Amino acid sequence: MKIATWNVNSLKVRQQHVIDWLATSQVDVLCLQELKLPDEKFPRAEFEAAGYKSWFAGQKTYNGVGILVCTDAGHEVDEISVVRNIPGFEDLQQRVIAATVDGVRIISAYFPNGQAPGSEKFAYKMRWLDALREWLREDMARHPKLALCGDYNIAPDDRDVHDPTAWEGQNLVSPEERAHFVRLIELGLTDAFRKFEQPEKLFTWWDYRMLAFRRNAGLRIDHILLSAELAAACTSCEVDKVPRKWDQPSDHTPVIVTIV
DNA sequence: ATGGCTTGCACCGCAAGA
User: Fold this and answer.
1) pLDDT score at A54
2) Any catalytic annotation for residue A110?
3) pTM for this entry
4) E strands along chain A, which residues?
5) Rounded to an integer, what distance in angstroms lies between the CA atom of residue A114 and that of residue A243?
6) A20 catalytic, yes or no?
7) Res A209: pLDDT
8) Quick one: average pLDDT of A33-51?
């Protein structure tokens, strides 16, 4: 089973990119973030025609997450298993959707950006991370096979930052955010990317400005964390930089794991 | 040099992203 995650930064603009990428990547499950459209504008029929069923939690202008599941591959989604948002955490922002696919718990999450340490948005990011972790603890107990996929808005290590000196203490790399990432790992999750040998300076996001992609001035902030059972069965984790080179690209690029 | 692009919304400039 191939599972991928991609922050598309507006599904309206990136719809064709997603369909094109699905055709070449042949993933079984694709987690999407930053749909930036309400549910009634979700292109369900277009994905259906491409061979994917979709579940989503949309929102006008901001946020919005979804999960696409390949129907041609015959995957079964337990309808009752679908959860939108973090249970018990009141939030108008649509940042989480979970679904169980063939017994594998898939979570598509768009972590808050946080703006800057000390800001109100950063405080929200910390609260959100606390709530996510407490829910995950329970959800992992229910689902030994679990993949937490998404835009974490956290670069966990200096290796995940093009210029660690320039970024030191900044939002996305601050000690508080990294401590939260470690707490997720301590639940018993594995960063699939670091399970394997990887090229130096491989990132998942590059700023639209200042020719950042051409200079490879990026961050690794999109991740797939796997429960022990899935980590043991994971044979690869790859970052596909190709869609970042397409016309009018998302500023993020997909991350893909293979589970056997 | 706190900008630089890109998006959506709502109107021709703004907030927000990371």
Assistant:
1) 98
2) yes
3) 0.97
4) 2-7, 29-33, 52-57, 65-70, 77-84, 96-101, 104-110, 146-151, 189-191, 205-206, 218-219, 222-227, 234-239, 255-259
5) 26
6) no
7) 94
8) 97
